[in-house]
Each structure stands twice: as structure tokens, then as C-alpha cells.
Automatic annotation (TrEMBL):
InterPro entries in UniProt: DUF7090 (IPR055516), P-loop_NTPase (IPR027417)
Stated name of the protein: ATPase involved in flagella biogenesis
Domain of life, source organism: Archaea
Amino acid sequence: TTAREVEQKLEHYEVDESSATILDTLSIERGYSRRSSDNIYYVAAPDDLDAIVEKTRQFLERHDGKLRLSVDSVTEMAYYADEDRAFEATKQILELLDEFDAVGLFHLSKEVHDQETLDRFRELFDGVVDLEEDGTVTTEF
């Protein structure tokens, strides 16, 4: 996701942009201009999952308090890298969240992955929230 896309989402949901730190994984690879900001970081390519994990570690080390992380999305990580690498990166990020007593929200598209892949990823998480097109929300903890 690009920083611009995240900023648009934050504005749409009326979230104070200064309270968010953004990791842009696409702009450099696509040749987009990069915005200078204390709260926007970049990795060279969306398939550089090691860099994504390392930037996540740096974010957690540099900030205090109860931290929240949103990975938007695991599906894109799998698209650019592959499912096995995305799975391993997700596990590493979850270990970091545990180490730093932070919480995470990981987005995974049911429309893209087969049931076996969905089940594999679901096993990593403490809870799952399913959002259906008709507005139905189900949770499993």
C-alpha cells in the first residue's frame, strides 16, 4: 500500500494522521514521488518481506505505550512474495507483537485464497473477524 492510499483512508475514517506511522511498500518500486515526513517510512519493494519485518521491529522499538499495527494486507504480501514467505513474515511480525506487548490487525482476502490457505493463516491468530459483503460480521476467539 502507498502512503497516499493510507493517508486517504485515515482521512476518510477521521483518524488523526499524526498518530499513525505508515510503511509504504509500493512507491519506490513504482517510481512514485516520496513524501518527506517523520511518520512515513519506505521499503524498496513489496516482496522485501525481511525489510517489512525489520521496519516493524524498528517501529515497535521506537515507540512507547500500547501500540497497534495494521497489516494491509497479508494477501498483497502473498501476491508479491508468495504464500509461504508471507506466512513466515506474518509469524515473525506476530512474534514481535508478542515481544512488545502490541496488538495487530491482519487483513486477508477470502476471495483470493483457497480454504486451505485461509485455515493455515487463521491458525496463527488469537481471533478472526469475518466481514461479509452483506454486512454480516462474525467473530471467532
